[in-house]
Design brief:
alpha+beta; Alpha-D-Glucose-1,6-Bisphosphate, Chain A, domain 4; 29% helix; globular
């Protein structure tokens, strides 16, 4: 996970505390926007929770990663069946720009740009406090975005927890000490 990692699907550090990850997804852009912002779609690849698209609005995300794939894979020790986080909308400009706080520990910005019949999704996660957080955030977003891509393409996804654990090892090896 270094600034020179630009030729693969892994996230890259664009500054010491900022991870950026990109995915080319089947469009159109309005479809991708819906999968980011609508609870019934977002819960299939990331987390449940109504997301009011009003600047300053609070919302809660609820992760139930065991429900994302069948089978879910082996949940790592120390992870519960559910995780909740309260966040706040920083900006919502449909259908190409969404930004929100990541609890009290960071900020996430997602931009969408048409690319032919595909859409380039660029996710930037700012204020990752330390190496351990960068590894968790990198593996997490990577696994969840791979799941989003599989859902959009109609292809079978890898078991979520197995993918996450494999990616965590990848990001651990790539992350500077």
């Amino acid at each position: 996970m270094t600034a020179t990692d630009t030729s693969n699907r892994h996230g890259r550090l664009v500054s010491p505390d900022t991870l950026q990850i990109e995915r080319l997804l089947p469009g159109p852009i309005e479809r991708i926007w819906s999968w980011l912002t609508q609870d019934d779609l977002r819960r299939k690849w990331l987390a449940a929770g109504e997301m009011p698209l009003t600047t300053g609005a609070e919302f809660e995300l609820t992760w139930r990663n065991d429900d994302l794939t069948t089978p879910p894979g082996a949940r790592p020790e120390g992870f519960g069946a559910e995780h909740r986080m309260t966040s706040r909308i920083i900006a919502a400009n449909p259908p190409g720009h969404l930004a929100f706080t990541w609890g009290s520990n960071g900020e996430v910005e997602i931009t969408l740009a048409p690319s032919g019949d595909m859409v380039l999704l660029t996710l930037t996660h700012r204020r990752t406090a330390d190496r351990a957080m960068r590894v968790m955030v990198g593996a997490g977003w990577h696994a969840h975005l791979d799941l989003l891509a599989a859902r959009l393409e109609g292809s079978p996804p890898e078991a979520f927890w197995d993918a996450w654990q494999r990616l965590r090892a990848d990001y651990e090896a790539r992350s500077p000490a």
